[in-house]
Amino acid sequence: MSPLNIEFPMGSSHELERFAEINARLPRMFRAVVNDPRQTHTAIIVPSLSLPQGELAKIAGAGFYEERLLCLLMLLRQPRMHIILVTSQPIHPTIIDYYLHLLAGIPGTHARKRLTLLSTSDGAPRALTEKILERPSLMAQINNKIKSKDHAHMVCFNSTPLERTLAVRLGVPLYACDPALLDLGTKSGSRKVFREAGVPMPAGFEDLQNSQDVANALVALWEENPSLSKAVVKLNEGFSGEGNAIFRYDWVRDTLDAAESHGTRVELVHAVLPKLEFEAVTETWERFDRTMNQMGGVVEVFIDGNDKFSPSVQCRVTPVGEAQAISTHDQILGGPSGQVFLGCEFPCRDDYRLLIQNYGRDVASRLAAQGVIGRFGVDFIVTRGPDGKFQAHGIEINLRKGGTTHPFLMLKFLTDGRYYPSNGQFISPTGLEKYYIASDNLMSEAYRGLRPDDLVDIAVYHSIHFSAVAECGVVFHLIGALSQYGKTGVTCIGNTLEEARSFYNRTLEILNRETSLVNNPRLISLP
């Protein structure tokens, strides 16, 4: 193996030039693997959540979200694929065995020989990639496990300058958005892309830098529409809706009506901004204001309606520049005003499925033209208009793998099926339509203390584990978060949406019953 490329200082022009040179190999690699999935290749999986740690801290068990990318272990069904998985903390062996068991047609021992597990042994709330870069011996281990730099690539949860530096120092391409283009995926950048792609979006303002800008934007929206009831204030790099807050015009409506000038109205609104209703239960005005000054944000009209839905489109731009809309979901949202991502159903309702799919493809095409590659999501709000037709509003673009990425990849890997853009359906080789409901938020105080072995035992005992024969059942993720946080995730796959929901409800009922020591002493006897 060649030595690590440490002669390129982080962020320097030399590093940027070297990154461009290395990533220029991606199209050739992509074509080669597509044409021959049996060729020898190495995937370095770095599931770093390289996001503002203050925003991640709002999510229970955020450190275990690295486990979302365990779905990529399914790539080991390619017989000459080698995977190097690096995590902050070692993954429990039962969790690894759980995923390898899902590899239909591949002996677990064969797959295990092609899997290298490494960790920083550092659970501190910092980006995994940053931890890796601080450990030269770990970097050398990764480097030595790469079979060939000409047949290897790195994949991550989201791409930042940290991932670019790691890719350059390892000398392998990064299959993700170039960090130089990350502004396109902020809340402000999303609005600009929607505008350029011709995608409708809520009235609002982007590139706001402080609370004064926020107050000015809120007043401007009211002056355009004095009957407005609510607006949403969003931090540019908020995560899973936890960086959003609601402003209610009723707080100042009488005084706004009486005010004689725009400036006076801005002062009135600015004075009540500490009353913002935050989606994150731990958020405070002081911290929100400070974060707004650091990362900026947007203000938008809060879209409301009796028939209101929150679908998303998962998109991909391949290394050869092909823009694709590859799935649609109805998001399951919670939080005080329904803006926090809890889970999803696939596919989204057929009433508006093709409408948002087409808008998503328009966004993907626009991003591809600007050089974006990789997987990303586009979120929408859909409402029914007076004419009975659905109208879609672009809400944000997430230039990263999100909450809909791993469920869809698991469906694809487990069934070997295909998504059909013509109708937005997923059909398995047996000719059956496939549906799922997925969530990262099966959470209860009663679940605390359940170990990975306990969860697997419960799933097997109650026959809810995914069956390759029936192509239905339950796949768990975020298993590592269960014991400490009482939190896990599921993807429940069925031949109808009703069957998928039934698996989901049954899973909840089983977990609740198994963790009730009074009503079910069986849990006590678990090994």
What can you see in these coordinates?
The chain is an alpha+beta fold and 527 residues long. It folds into three domains: 13-176, Rossmann fold, CATH 3.40.50; 203-301, no CATH class; 308-523, D-amino Acid Aminotransferase, Chain A, domain 1 (2-Layer Sandwich), CATH 3.30.470. The protein has 18 helices and 20 strands. The chain has helices at residues 13-23, 26-35, 53-56, 93-101, 108-113, 128-133, 136-145, 161-170, 187-197, 211-224, 253-258, 262-272, 285-295, 353-369, 405-415, 452-461, 482-485, 497-514, and strands at 41-46, 81-87, 115-119, 152-156, 204-208, 230-235, 244-248, 277-278, 297-301, 308-309, 311-317, 323-334, 340-346, 374-384, 390-398, 418-420, 425-427, 435-443, 473-477, 487-494. Strands 10, 11, 12, 13, 14, 15, 18, 19 and 20 form a nine-stranded antiparallel β-sheet that branches. Helix 1 packs across helix 8 (161-170) and helix 10 crosses helix 12. The protein is globular and about 75 Å long. The relative contact order is 0.11. Residues 517-527 have low confidence and may be disordered.
